[in-house]
Every structure is written in structure tokens, then in C-alpha cells.
Amino acid sequence: MGLWIKICGITRPEDAIAVERSGADALGLIFSSRSSRTVSPERAALIVAPLSEHLEKVAVFTEPDWDRIEEVVERLGIDLIQWHGGPLSRDEDAKLGSFGVPWMHAIRWDGRSPLETPHTALRLLVEGRSAKGWGGTGEGWSYGALREVEWPLPVVLSGGLSPEGVAIALNSICSPGNPDGRRLFGVDVSSGVESRPGVKDEIRMNTFVKNVREWEALL
Ligand SMILES: O=C(O)c1ccccc1NCC(=O)[C@H](O)[C@H](O)COP(=O)(O)O
């Protein structure tokens, strides 16, 4: 199976259709108030309406507003919850596992500490620490540091990826000489395929997907 490719921060139905056309596996919708890409559940319903069931819909949250999470998951047919809200208590971990869909823990990693392992999470999305915001900052980091730690769950590489840089980023953690890299589950991008925050560039999305597929064909 190829790498899972998620394009995040979709705010317009036409961009969602372009994500599906690009051959990506998933799109992300931001329900956090801490973003310039936030969409309401009503807006999100319009965005996902024309999409096929084959494109996974990921809902991104940073706040433990459980009623809102439940509403979004039920109303929109969400496939995966992405949690960006920082370290979790045991109760929060259990709560995130209780919505009837899997969830992914997004970690703003310092490049050294062991990767957190919530009990109920399906996978980890790992990006660097940025003073700019909670996510969608476009800031890259030293991806190769991932080679030095155990991966308790399948990892999605994120933070500052772009069509131009994604193969270099992937090479720094996985290569034919480093078979461990085969545990990488996927890649996630937002700013690197935008013309401005919240507005995706179709050519950049297509090029991103093409470059990932060409890279994995060489592995
Ligand atoms: O995208 C946002 O604005 C955002 C805000 C708050 C929490 C998460 C957010 N995005 C989540 C994502 O999955 C992004 O794709 C990820 O952070 C990578 O973004 P980028 O570095 O811009 O590619």
C-alpha cells in the first residue's frame, strides 16, 4: 500500500473537489478557533457534499468541546478525528476514543522526547514546534530526528512539506538503506499547496501527490 496523503485546511468546495481529483487519500477540515482556516459545521457540510466516499474526511480539533466533536462527526460522516490539543489526560484519551471513528494524535514534537502514546489513538501525526501557531504554519523541522526514536504508532509526517521539498523530507527518514522508514504511514500538507491561507492551488496539490507517488515507487 502507498503512503496515505492528506491535504489539510480545506475551506472551499472547489478545493475539496480538486483534492479528490489529485489522487490524495484524505482532506482535513479545521474546526479549531485557533486557525485562519476554520470552517463551521454548516460550511463543512457544503464542502464535503460533492465528494465520494473514497476520499477520507478528517476533522481537526484543538479544544475539548466534546459536544461539538460529536456533532461534527455525526453530521458530516467524518472518517478520522485529528487532535492538536496538546497532552491528554487519561479521561480525555478515553473520550477521544469514544466517538465511533478512529482518531490521530497530532504532536508538536521537540525532536528529542519519546513520542507520546495515547491508549486509544490509531496513529500519530508528527510536526515540529512553532511559535507561529497550533498547526498549518508551513514551518519545516529536522525530519531526520524521527530516525532516532521509537514509533509507538504509525506516523504521518507533517509540518512545512511542499511539492518541492517532500521527497527530500522523506529521504531524510526513509530510504532503501533505512528499511525502518517503511513504517511511515503517510504525509500531510497544508500551506505548501496554498496560494494564500485557506485557498488551495490545484497545480501544487497535483504536483505534491505526483512527487510522493514517484518517491514511493523508488523505495
Ligand atoms: O491548518 C491550520 O490552520 C491548523 C490550525 C490549528 C490546528 C491545526 C491546523 N492544521 C492541521 C494540519 O494538519 C496541517 O496540515 C499541519 O499542521 C501541517 O501544516 P503545514 O505546515 O502548513 O503544511
Task: Produce the secondary structure layout.
Layout: E1 4-7, H1 13-22, E2 26-30, H2 41-48, E3 56-61, H3 66-76, E4 80-83, H4 90-96, E5 103-109, E6 123-128, E7 155-157, H5 166-173, E8 184-189, E9 194-196, E10 199-200, H6 202-218
Parallel strand pairs: 1-2, 1-8, 2-3, 3-4, 4-5, 5-6, 6-7, 7-8
Antiparallel strand pairs: 9-10
This protein binds the ligand O=C(O)c1ccccc1NCC(=O)[C@H](O)[C@H](O)COP(=O)(O)O.
Ligand LARABZUK is lined by residues 8-9, 28, 30, 32, 34-35, 37, 60, 62, 84, 127, 133-138, 158-161, 188-192.
Describe the structure.
The strands form two sheets. The chain has an eight-stranded parallel barrel with strand order 1-2-3-4-5-6-7-8. Helix 1 runs parallel beside helix 6. With 219 residues, it is α/β, with parallel strands linked by helices. Strand 9 and strand 10 form a beta hairpin. The protein has a single domain (4-218), classed as Alpha-Beta Barrel (TIM Barrel), CATH 3.20.20.70. The protein starts with a strand and ends with a helix. The protein is built from six helices and ten strands; from the N terminus they run E-H-E-H-E-H-E-H-E-E-E-H-E-E-E-H. The model has no long low-confidence stretch (mean pLDDT 93). The radius of gyration is 16 Å and the shape is globular. 28% of the residues lie in helices and 21% in strands. Ligand LARABZUK binds next to strand 2 and strand 8. It comes from Leptospirillum ferrodiazotrophum. Its EC number is 5.3.1.24. Belongs to the TrpF family. It catalyses: N-(5-phospho-beta-D-ribosyl)anthranilate = 1-(2-carboxyphenylamino)-1-deoxy-D-ribulose 5-phosphate. Keywords: Amino-acid biosynthesis, Aromatic amino acid biosynthesis, Isomerase, Tryptophan biosynthesis.
